[in-house]
TrEMBL record:
PROSITE patterns: PROKAR_LIPOPROTEIN. This is Lipoprotein YajI. Residues 1-24 form the signal peptide. It comes from Pantoea ananas (Erwinia uredovora). InterPro entries: DUF3251, YajI-like_sf.
Amino acid sequence: MMIRMVWAPVALSLVALSGCSTTAGQPQVNQLHQEVSQLNQQMQRLTSQASAVEIQGQLNGHSQQGAWLLPQANTPVELQTQAGTLRLSLSRVEAEANGSRANLTLQTRDNTPLPGLEATVVWGQLDPATGKPLEADSLTQTIRVPASLTPRSSVIVPLRLGGITPDQLGYVRIHQVLAKTAAPTP
């Protein structure tokens, strides 16, 4: 008799609790799971970006010439050049048939007109274990920015970074920046 008295309330409690797990609350649970998943993805992206910013800072801190840009850092750097202090940033890194393409923005720090210039661009992969550049497999090109007839303080230079996919692209290094003066007209 005592066992029946205990089982009856337990059975009623189970029936009542099973009503709490109906599908009425399921969309809210699914939405919560989706939001948690999105937050985890954002956290992973921010952690990756923070790590890249740290590596970029270390590379630039030890660099005697030139500036290092890491696509994942998404952070501009300043470079002292013959043409003055330039602010460099990398954007729109995308795949193309033979590798990658990206936009390199060159901007004067004090919004003075940007002179014509020439620079060497080196790109390659980072060692996944150390975060250091794998310079043995790096590729190089020279970019030329002509002086503009209308003064401008910034310019976007499209880069073609052949031989390496956006996922493999670990760094872009800009160095040997030389100001080019216009030839005098006779």
